[in-house]
Structure formats: structure tokens, C-alpha cells
Amino acid sequence: MTGLALVTGASAGIGEELARIHAEKGGDLVLVARRKDRLDALADELEAQHDVSVHVVAADLAKPGAAASLLADVEALGLEVEVLINNAGFGGHGEFHDADLDREQRMIQVNIAALTELTHLFVQGMVARGEGKVLNVGSTAGFLPGPLQAVYYASKAYVNSFSQAVAEELRDTGVTVTVLCPGPVATEFQEAADLEGVKGFDFAADARSVAECGYRAMEKGQLLAINDPKLKVMLEGFLPMIPRRALLWISRKTMEKSA
Ligand SMILES: NC(=O)c1ccc[n+]([C@@H]2O[C@H](COP(=O)([O-])OP(=O)(O)OC[C@H]3O[C@@H](n4cnc5c(N)ncnc54)[C@H](OP(=O)(O)O)[C@@H]3O)[C@@H](O)[C@H]2O)c1
Q1: How far is the CA of 9 from the centre of ligand 1 (A)?
Q2: Residues 6+ apart with CB under 8 A from 38
Q3: Domain containing 192: what range?
Q4: Which of 175, 173, 134, 179 is nearest to 160 (CA)?
Q5: Residue pLDDT, tens place only, 175-190
């Protein structure tokens, strides 16, 4: 796949690896995140190693209107996005009633609103051209409610659901939508979300293998990808059979911090 890809959250973790994979395949890129220094360094690295053009747009997707202004920036550069990778996102930890509401609202803005708006804005051009690919980064967290990360889990349930619904709507348009649902991954996510010491991250995957899993699924136009086969069996096979209260208890236990 060598069309121009726009990757949000390309300054770290899974997004950075997704950008690397796309460049390795010879695709041009627009890298988006807040930390411009990191994006510039990645752009230099990828342009030096591969025959690709890499553009950088620093943007805070927590700001309302960020998606529209990103589209305007891309159009001003004369670029046409053929692959949209909505990866930017962050979590949090703690009981919801004690949480900083401003932070929870920013989470909703980045994880849900910006992803929705970017999909809307960029998919229109793809449909008109009769081809395009979208990869949204959801989460296995979206398969169940998440006590101690209530808003984050709910935001990922939205991403998982929204992506599959739009994929079905676009079935005959030449545009595919794939949702990548990683289990725990070793990235800066844990530190950013105050999740260090949380038991659920004891067996975290590496960002490169998770990005490869998502990118492969997007290339094939698959609906949903879970990077860990055991987790996939658990979530799709066993989870629906667990009584709701027991599921909530188990979910909370996996998000508690080690003493
Ligand atoms: N790590 C996990 O265990 C895990 C599991 C399942 C799903 N996921 C999902 O995978 C995606 C990538 O996470 P990661 O693990 O790679 O985490 P990460 O290493 O913390 O990277 C997060 C990326 O999102 C960007 N971002 C955060 N807030 C932003 C904002 N307001 N505006 C623009 N960009 C913003 C960050 O860039 P700047 O800080 O430079 O803005 C960074 O590039 C997220 O959607 C996350 O929910 C992660």
C-alpha cells in the first residue's frame, strides 16, 4: 500500500510504528501529534531511510475544531489522504467520581470526537475517488466496561462499534474501515494514564508487533483485528458467557495496582 497516509498519534508507541511500516512500504505520510520535535525527528528518519515524503502537522486533537483545521492544513499542502490512521488516544486511572472532569472531557474529545470527525471529513474524498482505507485504533478494552477506567473503556467501545458500522455502510464503495483492538501494549500509554503497576499490563505486547497486526488487517480490508490470539478467544468466546456482575469484578481486578 503506497498511497499517502495520515497517522494521528505518530509521535510515540503504536502510531510511530504504524508510520514506520507505511514508510517501509514506500508510502508518503502526514504525521500528526502535539510533540512536533518528535514528529520532525521521525520525518527526518523516514525520509533518510526510504524514498518517501513525510509532512508534519502539530495539532492538539483535544481542541474542538482540530479535525477541520487538520483537513485545511492537509489541503493547503496540496495533499490527498488515501489512508487514514486514527491512532491518537489516551487513558486514565481512578474512580470516575474523583476524576478531573476536564481531563475526561479531553479524553472523549481525542478518543471519540476527533476520530469521528476525521473519519467523516477524509472518507468523503475516498468515497468520491472509489478507494481508500481507514484504520481506527480501538481496544480490547472496548469489549467490556472498565471500572477504574470507565471513560476510557467506554470511549474504546465507541471506536470498536462506530468503525464496524461505518465499514458496513461503505461495503460497496471501495473504501474499507478496520478497527485494531490491541490488548495491553508496552508504550508511553501507561505513564500518560497513570497505569504503572496495574496488573493487566504484566504481559504487555510490543508496539511493533501490534502495529504490524493492525496494518496487515487494514491492507486486507478486514473488519477487526486483535493482536493476541488468546485474548481474542477469551473476548469473543468466553466473555459473553460470564455473568455481568462477575465480569465487572474481574475487569476491576485487572485494573487494580499491585500493592
Ligand atoms: N498501550 C496500550 O496498552 C493500548 C492498548 C489498547 C489500545 N491502545 C490505543 O492505542 C493508541 C495509541 O496508544 P499508544 O499505546 O501508542 O500510546 P502512546 O505511546 O502514549 O501514544 C499516544 C499517541 O497519541 C498522541 N496524542 C495523545 N493525546 C493527543 C492529543 N491531545 N492530540 C494529538 N495527539 C495526541 C500522542 O502524541 P503527543 O503526546 O505528542 O500529542 C502519542 O503520539 C491509543 O488510541 C490507545 O488508546 C493502547
Answers
A1: 6
A2: 11, 12
A3: 5-255
A4: 179
A5: 999 999 999 999 999 8
